[in-house]
Design brief:
Layout (H helix, E strand, L loop, with lengths): L3 E5 L3 H6 L9 E5 L3 E2 L15 E11 L12 E11 H7 L12 H5 L6 E2 L9 H5 L3 E6 L2 E7 L7 H10 L5
Parallel strand pairs: 3-6
Antiparallel strand pairs: 1-2, 4-5, 7-8
Amino acid sequence: PGKLLGVGWNYIDHAQEMGGDVPAEPLIFSKLVSSVVGPAGPVPRPDYTDQLDYEAELCFVALRPIRGPDGAGDLGVVLCNDFTDRWLLVRGMLLGPGVMGTRGFADAKGRPGFLPMGPFLVVPDDLERWLQSVELELWVNGALRQRAPASGMIWGVREMLARALADREAY
């Protein structure tokens, strides 16, 4: 992949869980690394943090260069597992107006092995309609850790693209 960007706090439940208020706009940050895992194999757990958090995520993949938010029709989707080193996040996070930069979110979510991606790319005929039917679940060692419908996203694909494109030089 080229540049990988993450969108933080894009589910109402998660935003409330992380501090209460829903942000006024998507929180975009750089994702620095990724890896691919097989369809049936376990996701390897990075062993250099005790404060590891797991999240199942939908990752959007540009099928051709995107020049504007209307490019949402040129996206595929792959399932990802987003790891976060919570201690590194809290220690280095910079909140406030503007772009997140390379500290905090980028550091805590961008370590080697922290974004394993499944090997299957889905290209829906109608991405927005398809997202209404998707529910994400994450199980860790047999215990359910996350269950959320993709329809619970605060910002749709077009809004996320618009924000990322508006600040693209900063990433």
